[in-house]
Amino acid sequence: MTYRMTAPTQALHFAQALGGYRPEDWHPQSAGFRWVQDGAGERIERSDRGTFRSVRFTLPARYRALPKSYAPFSPFSDGSVLIHSGQFHACRTTPCAGTDALPIDIKATGKTIGVEARRIADRARFVSRDEGTSIFVGRLVPEAADGFIAVIDPGLPPIARDHLRQSLPRAMEDFARSYGALSFRPELYVSIDARPRKDGHVSTQGGTLPGQVFMHFDGENARQRVTAEAPFWLDWFFAHEAAHLFQQDKIGKLAGDETAAWIHEGGADALAARALARRGAEERSYVESRVRAAETICEKGLASAPLDKATAAGHFDLHYQCGLLIWLAVDDSVRAGNGDGLHAVNKTLFALVKAGAPWDEKAFVAAAQKNGAPQPLMQRIARLVHGGYDDPRDDVAALGTAALSTVWRD
Ligand SMILES: [Zn+2]
């Protein structure tokens, strides 16, 4: 890998140091270069502080679990690899945010390069921007599917692989049927590298970048981790992320803020729940177990503070758990009069936000009420979000009952 500058530079700066990953794995090919820690970031420079116009590294395309950051490489079992371009963003000067556009030229003779929803043979050029993108390099062929690209590792246990082949298109088709097709072609990647590591490290990491959803299983017992809890949690993960793609595409921007994250996180979880519940009895039981777990976690969490204080209290997970119950309870109440349930609420909400309303609780309440959610339910939700209860148990239990009722209706 070579960095080429348009003018001589004294150093190449990286915004995030990634816990020592680059100094460990990126080896400068000419003598006289060194890595230097620099605040939260790091830089490569010549030991004599002289200028340079290019620097060449050799580096292994191996997985590294990074705290709060996506791995630079996610290898597939056949030797293909997914590369996160954002970890290669660099600056010639500081401050360096790591979001400057980086023109990248990839050569991979005999392989396919998947980038920006295109598949190109041997060599590709593109500009990596903002937080970067995932680039596929290898020989795997995407699953046959309309409207999106899915690459599933052949090294996954066959049961999980066959299951995902059907499950991924199904979530996308389900949502497209309710909301219309996406305006872009998303990419879904599932990779596995089950070789045990010398340090014994194991990792399962899922993530998203604009238009892309990915999951990587790494290290010993990776295959067992794929099939734990059947493959349903993996279905849920992809359906949740697919739901975000639809939220974002249909409102024309990223949804939400930190205090009302229950609207988009709970909303995505509820869409995943509804999509899975209608697939079969086993899936429905899985959804039921998620609803019951959400009830326990939400009740316990809200006992100390209402939902709008959850982020500040370090309980961001409550946005998912309580948000799932809120959305499914609204779904249940709306379905009584309008079979479209939460999809009707979503369509109203998306239209409001697209027309300029902020993505917030006010818009959610307006959309729920317009579609027939009754006043007592909305008061219950407002109480759990803003407080005014002695004990959240009864309100959470009522949401839980309604949530199960809608799940069993499918
Ligand atoms: Zn989410």
Short description:
This protein has helices at residues 21-25, 158-179, 222-227, 232-251, 261-277, 281-302, 317-335, 342-354, 361-370, 375-386, 393-409; strands at residues 2-9, 11-14, 27-28, 33-38, 41-46, 52-58, 73-75, 81-84, 102-115, 118-128, 134-138, 149-152, 187-193, 203-209, 212-218. With 410 residues, the protein is of the alpha+beta class.
Helix-strand blueprint:
Layout: E1 2-9, E2 11-14, H1 21-25, E3 27-28, E4 33-38, E5 41-46, E6 52-58, E7 73-75, E8 81-84, E9 102-115, E10 118-128, E11 134-138, E12 149-152, H2 158-179, E13 187-193, E14 203-209, E15 212-218, H3 222-227, H4 232-251, H5 261-277, H6 281-302, H7 317-335, H8 342-354, H9 361-370, H10 375-386, H11 393-409
Parallel strand pairs: 12-13, 13-15
Antiparallel strand pairs: 1-6, 2-5, 3-6, 4-5, 7-8, 8-11, 9-10, 9-11, 14-15
Helix pairs in contact: 2-4, 2-5, 4-5, 5-6, 5-7, 6-7, 6-11, 7-8, 7-11, 8-9
Global structural class: alpha+beta
Strand neighbour order, sheet with most strands: 7-8-11-9-10
What oligomeric state do these chains adopt? Answer: single chain
Which blocks of ≥5 consecutive residues have pLDDT under 50?
none
List the domain count as a whole number.
Answer: 3
Bound molecules: zinc ion
Q: State the helix count.
A: 11
Task: Compute the number of strand runs.
Answer: 15
Order of helices and strands: EEHEEEEEEEEEEHEEEHHHHHHHHH
> Rounded to an integer, what's the Rg over CA atoms?
23 Å
Determine the N-to-C terminus distance: 52 Å
Folded structure, characterized:
It is a single chain. The chain has 410 residues and is of the alpha+beta class. It has three domains: 1-60, no CATH class; 62-173 and 185-231, no CATH class; 255-409. Helix content is 40%, strand content 23%. β7 and β8 (81-84) form a beta hairpin. Bound molecules: zinc ion. Zinc ion binds next to α4 and α5.
